[in-house]
Design goal:
The protein is mainly alpha-helical. Helices cover 82% and strands 0% of the residues. The chain is built from five helices and no strands. Helix 4 crosses helix 5.
């Protein structure tokens, strides 16, 4: 195993530890954490045995393993982008509802003239 493989494995494990220890991850569903762990195992396996990604790519009709990983990264990026957009839209709606509730709670009837 060469030094770049050790560095990549350490980086992937560091991301896993960060995601599993963050507050938001503590509130995440169990399947999300399982998905993170499976992703780490797949990443470590691809780092240790990069030729196997080419074999899997050939089974799927892709020429190189690097191309297959790039396609998977594009799909993951799109999923993350859409998920983040949906989360921000939900938060925006919640803030608007909260602002309305606070405004209604502090509202006073107009005084007659």
């Amino acid at each position: 195993m060469n030094w770049i493989q050790v560095l990549l494995i350490a980086a992937v494990l560091g991301v896993l530890v960060y995601l599993l220890r963050s507050r938001r991850s503590a509130q995440a569903k169990a399947w999300v954490k399982i998905g993170y762990v499976l992703f780490v195992f797949a990443a470590v396996y691809a780092i240790v045995r990069p030729d196997d990604t080419t074999v899997v790519a050939n089974w799927l009709g892709v020429d190189r393993g690097a191309d297959l990983l790039e396609y998977a990264l594009i799909v993951a990026f799109l999923f993350t982008t859409i998920s983040t957009y949906m989360r921000f839209k939900d938060l925006e709606l919640r803030y608007a509802q909260l602002a309305r509730a606070v405004a209604l709670e502090g509202a006073r009837e107009p005084s007659p003239k």
